[in-house]
Amino acid sequence: MMAFTSLVKIWLALLAAVWAITPLASAAAQSWPARPVRFVMSAPAGSSIDLLGRVLASSLKDAFEQPVVVENMPGAGGTLAMTAVARAPADGHTLGVGFNGPLAFAPFLYSRLGYDPRSDLQPVVLTTAQPNVLTVAAPLPVRSVAELLAYARARPGELNYASVGSGSSSHLTMALMRTMSGLDITHVPYNGSPPALNALASGDAHMIFAVPTAIAPLAQAGKLRMLAVTSALRWSLLPDLPTLAESGLAGFEATAWNGVVAPAGTAAEIVQRLNRSLNAALRDPVVKARLKAAGLDPVGGSAEAFAALIRAEADKWGPIIRRTGARVD
Question: Among positive and negative, which fits the CA dihedral 180, 183, 189, 193?
């Protein structure tokens, strides 16, 4: 009986402690944000993620009446930025914009990571999703996927492909195409889309998979040539471009996506407020127009749906990464 009484006392003490902490947590969430919010970008200035982040940061600033400071932290395939977010205090004052690479692919590419995407980061919302575009340097004498494959096969080991970073969807989409088509081409990673596409335009690289945002100006200037999109169906913003699947690589599909994350342990109330505000921004006609003009399709949805997407993408691409042999370290 005494043992039972002791257990009851311990249980009541623990319950009292929870009751004592809960009002404090709720009060902190209600007063948030209490100071400027840090918005960490996993790509450099001038990239599609930078544009997305700045549009969303402006919306959050207006919604929460606090400055939102954009900090570009490119490098290591976006994992530097996500490490910084994962290690930040879980008080809602540090957020990050990530993409497929550091959120779903990284655990299969790096032997050591400074964070675990599933346990150290809290998904907030899926912001945008769009296909990559297979693009070549204008001087390359090819105008279709079939011509590119034939040209590369006739020159094993002579061509290279740029990517926006090791472990990015830009890198792994090409690794998948290499595996499916048997190409012998060399990977040259760059720190974001601006230097990668400049390398292509200058002739230092021959081909790339990248999002339309960064490609469009150089393509319009005649320095790059877009060949196909990676979506399962033709993309509404580039309806004249065929898919890789209809260009001879049956079943080929890969989508680039971006989303906002916070440190794990961020109060549910803060995550919900962020999710509501970001969804409102993504529905705003002005924001939608700016993103679509940049080749980004606004998505939105719940934090739970974004978490499920990250898990599904990891489950899909993990075996592909192992099969292609792609590694970063």
Answer: negative
